What does this fold into?
Amino acid sequence: MLNNSDSRPIGVFDSGLGGISVVREIGRLLPNENIIYIGDNLNNPYGTKSKDEILRITLDVVDRLIKMNVKAVVIACNTATSAAVRILREKYNVPIVGMEPAIKPAVMENKGGTIGVMATISTLKEKKFQNNMDKFKDISNIYKIPTQELVELVENDIFSGDEINRVLDKHFYEYRDIKFDAIVLGCTHFIFLKDSISDYFKGIKIYDGNEGTVNRLKNLLMRDDILNYSNQMGKLEIIFTRENDKFKRRAIDLMK
Ligand code: DGL
It folds into this structure.
């Protein structure tokens, strides 16, 4: 039975372009939902900041979304999720969905294998990540590989080529004798580098958490009976906190 139809938008945010990969996934799995996206590129990168700083910035962005009457918030950023999700859930009474590096599926499909998790410096330092990793440490060998510079490359419109390979060479240098069975992309910016990373690792299986996050969002909207049952395609409003016009154009290109 269809109950209420709730056309209020879903608020999604990240430190820049990365979260657009999550918006794209929401568009695929929940095409009727309206979305407001905030790309907080004025504060990019989040991944080199302290937990307190990330929390302060994140609270500002979520306050802004709540004032725009969103019915749910998606933290389309692993870094902001690990630093702030608990406090955000305490403070606001709309459903809040976060991102988590997809370690579980990578481990379950590669039992006994070697898995590299690429994420920002801050995500990999957080206790939340360590706890997640500890759950699986007896099943697979998991390595943390901070590849923060890739965030900057994506923000600068670089998705393939020598610069990407150079950053990967640098960060995987100490693991050069290890044969990875799978790589987890623990940062939403890296989703746009999936092809380059896959080429670099010669077709290795790559995991990300975007589909899992959007499925979780869908379940929460169903649970609270706040899905939008309109038969129209949802509207998307995009706001960047720096160079809005330029980044909006790039975001739209990335969704194609
Ligand atoms: N896209 C972000 C993430 O998923 C953060 C990138 C950054 O600002 O450092 O972690």
